[in-house]
Amino acid sequence: MGKQLHSTKWCGKKRYHFAVIDSTNKKAKELAETGCEHGTLVTAESQEAGIGRRGRSWSSEEGTGIYMSLVLRPEIKTECASSITLVAAISVARAIINLFKESSQEAVFPQIKWPNDIVLNKKKVCGILTELSLDGTKIDYIVIGIGINVSNQSFPEELQSIASSILLETQEELDKELLIEEVWKQFEYYYALFLQTQDLQGFKEEYVSLLANQNNKVKVLDPNGEYEGVARGITNTGELLVETEQVICEVSSGEVSVRGMYGYV
Ligand code: BTN
Question: What CATH topology corresponds to 213-258?
């Protein structure tokens, strides 16, 4: 058992910390299957088999990043669960903004690449993998896995145009424990807003104000055919609104990914 978080109300009050683990998401799912409580947090110094979205891996060296997963047992409608990944994204972005405000450095402006990557100077510094388990048609649990590139000094050449770390983009090394505390403090705030309506109404405007894609040309990689348009905000349930010449499309994150026309964002 690791140190519990002290500035939160319910996130991370039970915390399991590992020097090395295969994947914090995998561990969190095992704990959830054996009945762990809502808000249980798993953190690790390094992962040997970090899992990314779309079957990719997540590089998780010791000392460079934050690797953590939270178990939720929400009493919400199943169809509302996909919004939680956007709740996590705004929480990470806000946490980074707040820590830089406190450290008297110049303001730092993380943005969200829809639906849930955090970018600094248009390069990805955080990825989020949300996994859902159903009990019949009801939600049994949700695991939110967050990987943050905090102090990586370099990236493989093929990733240099799309990935970076907070250190590389700001020349500042954030304290990882402080950032973990702040992410979950912010998560409690936005999650409470989410629960009021079971959607994103309570902070949709704020999310859009942080959206790196907003009013930019995007390419929608839809399995039924790619198309291009301009990102025009999100719906209350988290779909990206993409304006094409003919219509405004609502793009769901489960089905498609979105790329910038001139780079990653
Ligand atoms: C992405 O592909 O953008 C999502 C990456 C999610 C990585 C994090 S690291 C902590 C948690 N444990 C995992 O195995 N994956 C997530």
Answer: SH3 type barrels. (2.30.30)
